[in-house]
Amino acid sequence: MRTVRGSLRVWNGIALGTALVLGVGVVSGVLHKPTDDPDTVVARFVGALNAHDVDAAADLTSYPSAAKASMKQMFDALEPEKVDFDVNQVISLGADSGMFNAAATWDLGKDRTWKYNVDGWVRKLSVGWRVSWNPQTVAPGIGNGRILRLDRTDAAPPTVFDIAGVPMMTEQRINAVKLDPATMPDPVGTTVRLAKVIEPVAPLITPESMQQDLAAAHGKQVTAVSLRDGDFAVLESDLRAIPGVVIDTQPKLITVDRRVTSPVVDAMRNVWQANRDETAGWAVNAVAQDGSRTPLTGYQGPPGPDIRSTLEPRLQLAAEDAVVSVGTPAAIVAIQPSTGALLAVAQNNQASDQGPIAFTGLYPSGSALDLVRTAAAAQNTDVEHAAKELGLALGYKIPGLDQQTATFPSGGPNLMRAASDKKSDDVMVSPFGMALVAAAISRGAPTVPVIAAGQPATTTETAPALPSAVVDQLRGVMRDTVQRGSANLLAGYGDLVGATGAHDDDRWFYGSRGDLAFAVFVQNADGGDQAVKMTDRMFKALAKPPA
Question: What is the pLDDT of residue 249?
Fold first, then answer.
């Protein structure tokens, strides 16, 4: 028996070492050197692996087709930046067999490294020396139907709390009730039965709406409704009895109180996901045909910190109660001027059908911009400059939230110069933007918005605070509007001040009360005072004892 000791290292497909004295060309699948000894075949085999040349490596085994399939799966799954198989020893066991040992290092990028040792066999066949194929010659844990997979891992999920420190959102199991056309012999019958079963929890989902979704999906599955575990447990047996209904259960971050619905909820999911992404780990798993996993390597650090949302639940529910009082799109945004905390953001279903209009909907400002014009005239400046002093168009970037505050027409300052210029309807504002205006007047300077504690908005622009005399002038106008003007319905709310605005049938009311600033918007309002009435309803709901 001949033993070759020392280290046989392979660099760029060139085998070097005391065990080999013959020159070996670059591994590319077209080598001409015969594999006439175990040292040479092992060197060429690991050289091909290091070069990511699966075909060449497979051709050097006793079972090329199986080896190619297994190694291709391994490389495709791991997508390594670099592979280094370093041969430690090749041992001759006679004239027609031998064994070897190698150390493998996989650089998987992003500071992920997998190291292990393997043992393999070589045999002299009729075609020359070959590596006896066994999947575990290249990686542990695979073979017999098991494959490699690079998986993301996550620590325990953080909880999202509200501004008072009460859990607001947690990760829970959600049961998606789906319709599968491929297993549905009678779509009309299925949708009629399903609508009846889910009516107690989803009365707005009708057979007709589900049939429309199916038609638009062109043979693909569609989700009819998503149910929390409690509701699903009650309905499960009836749901599973309906032909064409399939259940897909997945974890999802949802509100603890199902009454809380807000564009901020989706934004908090983005903040939560960013938290998860920062603390994500990884694992290389050997995965069996039944889906079971055997971890081979990886790393998972500690969980990220819990998240504190700025939503105030009682105000949020009061705002929700107000926006559903009208039949056209409506939104309310409430901010704490002293901190910039988004305390409540609500919109009704008609608004939500258009998207998160509270943040991204831009509407002609009309007379809603009168206070900005007043501030511009008092300082002999243009409206856009005064708008920025009031928090509009400062280019805020808020973690987790897409939003706009205002856009201004082209034409430069002169176009916007006159404080009495009513043509500045071309200025487009969002409910969020007008809430920032109300907050800036209350605070005396622009407030920096935030939806998650410790993650305030950033901007490359700055705006000076309004002169105190101008702030007092604006507050005086707002006080008169509430006490003796078009918003006198709200005169009984003590220190509440505000301003009305209109463009065509759209109506605005924005103002403040104590350390609370807000904007109310109603599109295509049925009545000129509808935004004022909605404000009244919000404060009446807020005054009720907690449920």
Answer: 95
Distance in angstroms (rounded) separating the CA atoms of residues 520 and 310: 19
Three-state DSSP at 413 gives helix
pLDDT of residue 340: 97
The verdict on pTM exceeding 0.85 is no
CB atoms within 10 A of CB 134: 19
Question: Could you tell me the two tokens for 94?
Answer: 């006679």
CA distance 18 to 4: 9
In the chain, DSSP finds a helix count (H) and a strand count (E) of: 15, 23
Question: Which of 170, 150, 151 is CA-nearest to residue 251?
Answer: 170
Residue 527 DSSP label = S
Residue ranges of the chain with per-residue pLDDT less than 50: 1-33, 411-424
Coil, helix or strand at residue 308 = strand
pLDDT at 269: 97
Distance, CA of 332 to CA of 322 (rounded, Å): 8
pLDDT of residue 34: 52
Other beta carbons within 10 Å of 468: 9
Residues 6+ apart with CB under 8 A from 265: 169, 255
Q: Which residues pair with 106 in a beta bridge?
A: 83, 114
Q: What are phi and psi of 43, to 5 degrees?
A: -60, -45
CB atoms within 10 A of CB 185: 8
Q: How far apart are CA 470 and CA 378, in angstroms?
A: 7
In sequence order, which residues have a C-beta less than 8 Å from that of residue 24 and are 6 or more positions away? 13, 14, 15, 31, 33, 40, 43, 44, 47
DSSP letter, residue 514: S
